[in-house]
Amino acid sequence: MIEEAREMEQVKEMEHRIENTKALTLAIESSCDETSAAVVEGLRTVRSNVVSSQIATHVTYGGVVPEIASRMHIEAIHHVVERALAEADTTLDAIDFLSVTQGPGLVGALLVGVSYAKGLAIATGKDIVGVNHMKGHIASNYITHPHLKPPYIALVVSGGHSYIMDVIDYDHMEKLGETRDDAMGEAYDKVARVLGFGYPGGSALEKHALEGSPTIDFPRVYLEKGSLDFSFSGLKTAVINHINTEKMKGHSLNSPDIARSFQDSIIEVVRDKTMDALHRRGRKIIAISGGVSANTALRKALEEVASKEGVEVYVPARGYISDNAAMIGAAAQIEYALHGPSDLRFTADPNMKL
Ligand code: KG4
Ligand code: ZN
To answer: Is the pTM of this model over 0.70?
Structure first.
């Protein structure tokens, strides 16, 4: 009992420290194809968030070309940082500490941000914090929802990763499930590609699905009983097989129906596993983040079941869904308030785990 009370006291003290920090961080993100810099005050106040997207260049190749991404980050990073400081109406002198995405991501792309930020840290003598990109996605909801605080279930679904996390307090989270093959966004992108929707195909597929009906019964893959892991590659293969069979039969493809059937299948599984996690942990809040949280059907599917149980569902505001430095700054505030700066010897970690 005394032990429990002491723990409660510690959590309260930690919450207080994080909620009340007014530190200014200059955050940098360069893990994939967006060069971004932001000035973030405390956990929730974004003073600026500048994103320079390379997507138009990579579209030509049907995916992100790592070598081109690194080069474009080098070209953009200094201007993006200067703009972020100007838009925040501040200068480097006023910044309390620097923060940068350490991983996961493309190694060459990450190295541009990490090297630049470390250079600034050495030149100015300021502290620096290396941030896990996925913790950044999770933190994007703190920016959007001023009252959101742990505990809650985080569903983090992007182009490279898919996780169900139990966010126990600001400093502790437990992984309850993750994908064993493709990420959710990756499955969307691959199916969109075979349907000829271009790259990245997630949002295009969602739009086409709106015009279709769920006429095809694609598999719902739940894995072993009780597992909260995902496997999306079987569904992707089923869609490709269906398309090939239809083509062989000389049938014309009903792309909206295929898109809708795929989307219903993947969302149903993700919804069920997220609710399962929520029930097991007795939580009352679900916070979705990562690029796929832009998907309205996913949000609605979760809201529909959650609202019946008085459970709230949060998604980040528009500007904080896809990769951006503001979310990195928010996650860095937690890290810095609780654990202080990173050792300057830290380096890019392309496979950094949550
Ligand atoms: O988080 P993010 O911007 O980058 C990574 O860290 O991966 O996520 C990008 C992913 C892509 O796979 C993209 O197709 C997917 O998010 N995405 C969507 C939607 N908007 C973006 N997937 C499904 N429906 C959407 N509306
Ligand atoms: Zn991301």
So the answer is: yes
